Amino acid sequence: MIGVTLVATGLAVSYRVATGALAGLVTVSGIAVVLALAGLLVTARSPRTGTAVSIAALVPIAGALALAVPGKFGPAQLLLAAAGVTAWSLICLMVPSAERERIVAFFTAVAVTAAGVWLAAGAELLWELPMRSVGCGLIVTALLITIQAAQLSALWARFPLPVIPAPGDPTPSAPSLRVLEDLPRRVRVSDAHQSGFIAAAVLLSVLGSVAIAVRPESVGGVGWYVVAATAAVTALRARVWDSATCKAWLLAQPHLVAGILLVVYTATGRYVAALGAVLVLAVLVFAWIVVALNPAIASPDSYSLPLRRLLGFVAAGLDVSLIPVMAYLVGLFTWVLNR
What we know:
Blueprint (H helix, E strand, L loop, with lengths): L1 H18 L2 H24 L1 H10 L1 H11 L6 H20 L5 H28 L3 H17 L1 H8 L20 H37 L6 H17 L7 H24 L3 H23 L11 H25 L2 H6 L2
Helix pairs in contact: 1-2, 1-4, 2-3, 2-4, 4-5, 5-6, 6-7, 6-9, 7-9, 7-13, 8-9, 9-10, 9-11, 10-11, 10-13, 11-12
């Protein structure tokens, strides 16, 4: 059933785009409403089926809201589609279900990514920003999410806040047995939220890097530095996470950026830039081969203390340099000096 609805959604969207007829929009909207209601109603009886239907509903919801805005596809259509995807993802996170722990990471990643795209589309719609400014905004958002992922995941998992008495106050009572028994579940939910936040941060940084480098002839040295430094900072941050999922997402960022840019450059006829993307991918693959043959390289504990400090200093230096370099790239310094 889900496959049939997705195919029907694709046909209706194609019909609407090709002909501009209202029937395509009505069909997509109907599919979105049916899948959304089915996902909410079926979840109570069959959590696994309801989860699958809720995930499938993201496609027609985004399509219907994007097609609801007349004109060519642009920031306005993207704004409404991203808002709908964000809202539906948050609804799915709030609906109680036996399968909730399994879908938390997915819907957290979708909600945060869509919210970031929604903000970027809104800024583009209001101020008509160049692509490099939109890309820098997405990268800054990704950096903030990565830094605050642990705190946000604990907040979204509703961890009980500790009561710290003031000097002279009586010692607070211990949490109730019900709260203590629920702590393991909240820890699992927090880990899932954390994986979702990291995945969303990586996806937003990939979108930001692609937005900056989509036209290589106009990027310049500063733009390439932002793209490379973002990839390096994201990969180096993997050393401080214990979760294998978070590490995998962070280490995948350079590969995703290089792969997407390779496809974009090849599709637009920029073959010299595509060759550069191929070389970057080759270097990354070679690095993985070296690490696979020498696993000690990937273990921070195998490094000496001075080398760890040097690596931390390099990571901190790249982190600190990104914000002023991006401010220069978007012309913020020039704007301030010319006022």
